Amino acid sequence: MLANLFLHYAFDKWMEREHSSIPFERYADDAVCHCKNQAQAEYLLRRLNERMSEVGLELHPEKTKIVYCKDGDRRKDFALTRFDFFGYTYRARRSKNKWGKYFINFTPAISNKAAKAIRHTSRGWNWPKRSDKDLEDLSQMFNPIIQGWINYYGRYYKSALYPTLRCLDRRLAMWATRKYKRLRCHRRRAAQWLNRIARRQPNLFAHWRLMNAVAGR
């Protein structure tokens, strides 16, 4: 809290006062500044180094970088053309406009680090060892968390989230092989069984609603 308050005056107010034409976002000690060109970015970087020195701080040498937001219109070659911020990776991606035509857009999607964190968290739920629970129990216990992931990471370029959500079904299939004797040692059969339930009860899990909608079920 104190660090955030300090940066509010050391960075936010300073940017508004000294560089009001440069938009920026900051969360805790991470910030993104939107410069018009490389010259402006290099100038701002020098000024930021000076400012941080004035207030007794130092820019992180690995996290502080100039990134070229390459897309279909900005096609120059540059060393760095992607960056991570607040759980998203921003880079050039193939997108579709409202007329159904594809183009290259610089846009965010869930970062590899965030996807790995989701997989790590879901692994910690130990679904295969919860054979005393029914699907409805697991849904009530974990659906709010899954829905939260979808709400946040599915806001932009939702398809990048799908592989991570499919990991949840693989863990549910492992749970089913422990829960039901007829499915033991038959993970593929368990996956098919889950798939049938997902079609019949798409609202049971938040990611089932999403994946069923994508599949057009």
In short:
The chain is of the alpha+beta class and 217 residues long.
Instruction: Give the count of helical stretches.
Output: 7
Helix % is 40-55%
The portion of residues forming beta strands comes to 5-15%
What is the count of structural domains? 2
Distance between the termini: 47 Å
Average pLDDT reading:
94
What is the tally of beta strands?
A: 5
Task: Tell me what the structure shows.
The longest helix has 19 residues, at 135-153. The strands form two sheets. The protein has a three-stranded antiparallel β-sheet with strand order 3-4-5. A two-stranded antiparallel ribbon has the order 1-2. The chain has two domains: 1-55, no CATH class; 111-213, no CATH class. By secondary structure, the chain is an alpha+beta fold. 16% of the residues are buried. Helix 3 packs parallel to helix 5 (162-179) and helix 5 crosses helix 6. It contains seven helices and five strands, in the order H-E-E-H-E-E-E-H-H-H-H-H. This is Retron-type reverse transcriptase (RNA-directed DNA polymerase). Residues 1-90 form the Reverse transcriptase domain. Belongs to the bacterial reverse transcriptase family. InterPro entries: DNA/RNA_pol_sf (IPR043502), GrpII_Intron_Splice-Mob/Def (IPR051083), Mat_intron_G2 (IPR013597), RT_dom (IPR000477). Pfam families: GIIM, RVT_1.
Topology of this structure?
Blueprint: H1 2-18, E1 24-27, E2 30-33, H2 38-54, E3 83-85, E4 88-96, E5 102-110, H3 112-124, H4 135-153, H5 162-179, H6 187-200, H7 206-215
Antiparallel strand pairs: 1-2, 3-4, 4-5
Keywords:
two-stranded antiparallel ribbon; three-stranded antiparallel sheet; alpha+beta; 217 residues; 2 domains; Retron-type reverse transcriptase (RNA-directed DNA polymerase)
